[in-house]
Design goal:
This protein has about 325 residues and is of the alpha/beta class. It has helices at about 15-25, 45-60, 75-80, 100-120, 135-140, 155-170, 205-210, 210-225, 225-235, 240-255, 305-329; strands spanning about 5-10, 35-40, 65-70, 85, 125-130, 150-155, 180, 180-185, 190-195, 200, 205, 265-270, 280-285, 295. The N and C termini lie far apart (about 50 Å). Bound molecules: nicotinamide-adenine-dinucleotide (NAD) and (2S)-2-hydroxypentanedioic acid.
Amino acid sequence: MSKPLRVLVTGAAGQIAYSLLYSIAKGDVFGPDRPISLVLLDIEAMMGVLKGVVMELIDCALPLLTEIIPTSDISMAFKDIDVGVLVGAMPRREGMERKDLLKANVKIFKQQGQALDQFAKKNVKVIVVGNPANTNAFICKKYAPSIPPQNFTCLTRLDQNRAQSQIAARVGVSCQDVKNVIIWGNHSSTQFPDVTHATLKGKPVLEVVKDDNWIKNEFISTVQTRGAAVIAARKLSSAMSAAKAICDHLKDWFHGTPDGQWVSMGITSDGSYGIEKGLIYSMPVKIGAGQEYTIVQGLSIDDFARSKMDATMKELIEERDAALQTCEA
Ligand SMILES: NC(=O)c1ccc[n+]([C@@H]2O[C@H](COP(=O)([O-])OP(=O)(O)OC[C@H]3O[C@@H](n4cnc5c(N)ncnc54)[C@H](O)[C@@H]3O)[C@@H](O)[C@H]2O)c1
Ligand SMILES: O=C(O)CC[C@H](O)C(=O)O
């Protein structure tokens, strides 16, 4: 057996973590031969609840789970981690605006960026889930200058999964028949779910669906507002589907994408597709066996796509500037 992978999950007493920890500890994400040392961070007030989560993990009797470290101490939590799954943040509830969330959460990611810089392994892989996810990842990266920018990502796989499932349901096929949907930009209602290059059983989605009006209107807005629809129905933010998407994101990052397929992740823009350098912007990537991802290049972008991609970039620039102001105040 190889050396345990040290995986930190923040917000470990919260609802996403409750759906996530079992899959990670069971081996579904990093592989059936990879022992896991699980570090669980939450705030001091949640230590009682976290104790219960730890008891349940122990009671699952999972052979790969070699160690569980529950803590509210940030320096202990980030020490020597290989993977950081940064979930811990306030979720939006009904009636809350995105701006309220940015103010409440961005400072958490400044502090955690500094902790990554100081305590984590320099090749740590980070996925930010706490909202506003792209901007929080940007802040984390900024305050961890000793870690390569490409090691910071944010979760937009939930949006990809939502888009894939909407197309599959429209046509009446399994979601696994739909490939190469793209999520461009922000994990927010300005994101652009793009099926121009997507295929369904090998044929272009646009040719199979044959309804441009549905694609350009109902499909896009359903995916863009799905998170808000779940909040309205559940009175709580999505958790089971978010946990599944985190697993998909990490599994592909560690094990690679299948030949001819790509996935969407929020990553540091290198200027590709005219997106401002340095922003954390969701793009299509291919991942090789070496766990390094490359942006899929050369995709055609028509005027409709360009305007959608620019609108979500504009929102990300505004969020970044507001976040920097909050952090520097
Ligand atoms: N990117 C996505 O696709 C996506 C999807 C769903 C939810 N989210 C976001 O994920 C976040 C968590 O959602 P949830 O439903 O699990 O929320 P939750 O309220 O159930 O749990 C959040 C947990 O984080 C903890 N926490 C708060 N501040 C912390 C800190 N500084 N350090 C460590 N832990 C801290 C809280 O005590 C709580 O236990 C929210 O911001 C939500 O909006 C993102
Ligand atoms: O706050 C929101 O509108 C979205 C919550 C979450 O990120 C989701 O996509 O389900």
